Amino acid sequence: MDSKEKNKLKHIAIIMDGNGRWAEKRNKTRIKGHIHAKKSVKECIEFCLENEIKYLSLFAFSTENWSRPKIEVSALMSLLDVVINDEANNLMEKNIKFRCIGDINELPKKTVESIEKIKALTKENNGLNLILAINYSGRWDIQNAVKRILSSKKNNILENFNEKDFEKYLSTSNIPDPELLIRTSGEQRISNFYLWQTAYTELYFTDILWPDFNKKELNNAIFEFNKRNRRFGKV
């Protein structure tokens, strides 16, 4: 990615899909796919650091994922605890700010404690913003924003209310909308992720399963992004 390309992207969002299928293709348990996927996360983080991309959003666990087998969900939560704690020093060394969006109060207590700990530890970092979406859905985000608006004590809150005002109540307040959304595994939908935020986001779908996604594949997605003419409704 040359300097011209670097300036075109501030925020990349990724729907990390295909861990289970990757494992099943290799006659392994689904959780093995999730474990192997850590390598892909690290490669994408390194790529963003190398190319001065300030925001990386990773869709890790949706509100719909609770319907998966309990043993898989439990293993995912345990894996999340381990990864967060293991990567604490690395995040600090690389000046990465960890952020989390979603209804984390529904998560296991230990997982919530791990999330809050790493958020507090990295809150002063000003490099890459790593945003993990856990127990998140776009519909939840919008609904939650409306609830916050209705419960606001400001009597004139709806006077001259506009889109920018509404965005202040979303979980992504102060985070720019992603210019590029990538989904792996061949599925071509956004699955209730960033419904408001992706109004004019470029979508990129790849057949690559998430555990096989790497810097080269991310660069391919950005190469395709840079060929597109983003008109934002204009001629």
CATH fold naming = Undecaprenyl pyrophosphate synthetase
For the largest beta-sheet, the strand count, sense and barrel status come to: 6 strands, parallel
Helix and strand string, N-terminal first? HEHHHEHHEHEHHEEH
The proportion of strand residues reads: 5-15%
Q: At CATH's second level, what is the architecture?
A: 3-Layer(aba) Sandwich
CATH class: Alpha Beta
* Amino-to-carboxy terminus distance: 28 Å
Model description:
- With 235 residues, this protein is an alpha/beta fold.
- It has one domain (3-227): Decaprenyl diphosphate synthase-like (Undecaprenyl pyrophosphate synthetase).
- The chain contains ten helices and six strands; from the N terminus they run αβαααβααβαβααββα.
- α2 (19-25) crosses α3 (30-36), α3 (30-36) packs parallel to α5 and α5 (70-86) packs parallel to α7.
- The protein is globular, with a radius of gyration of 18 Å.
- The two termini are 28 Å apart.
What is the strand and helix layout of this fold?
Layout: H1 3-6, E1 11-15, H2 19-25, H3 30-36, H4 38-50, E2 55-62, H5 70-86, H6 88-93, E3 97-101, H7 109-122, E4 129-136, H8 138-150, H9 163-167, E5 180-183, E6 202-205, H10 215-227
Helix pairs in contact: 2-3, 3-5, 5-7
